[in-house]
Recover the amino acids of this structure.
């Protein structure tokens, strides 16, 4: 099992709270699957949430905020983490490397 799957516990299946780097987060099924499939280190997610270069409100969901930061360990690509902060623990809705922001952030 890779680092992402191990950190998220159940190999990408189901939802639930996971403590990542001292921050308790909940991952949607979609977010868990994406993290495992794309081998996104959960530490990068926490770092992006804690130290974003930029945040943006979601265009459709007023409860969601987009956190963006570069990930030096992955070619300085921009990681976008979509987080619902209105629930406890905060819920990662989606996470992906945003190609549209290459060389723009």
């Amino acid at each position: 099992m890779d680092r992402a799957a191990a950190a998220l516990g159940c190999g990408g299946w189901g939802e639930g709270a996971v403590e990542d780097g001292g921050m308790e987060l909940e991952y949607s099924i979609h977010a868990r699957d994406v993290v495992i499939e794309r081998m996104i280190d959960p530490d990068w997610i926490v770092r992006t949430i804690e130290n974003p270069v930029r945040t943006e409100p979601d265009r459709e969901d007023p409860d969601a905020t987009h956190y963006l930061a570069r990930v030096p360990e992955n070619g300085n690509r921009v990681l976008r983490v979509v987080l619902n902060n209105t629930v406890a623990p905060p819920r990662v809705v989606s996470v992906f490397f945003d190609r549209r922001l290459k060389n723009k952030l």
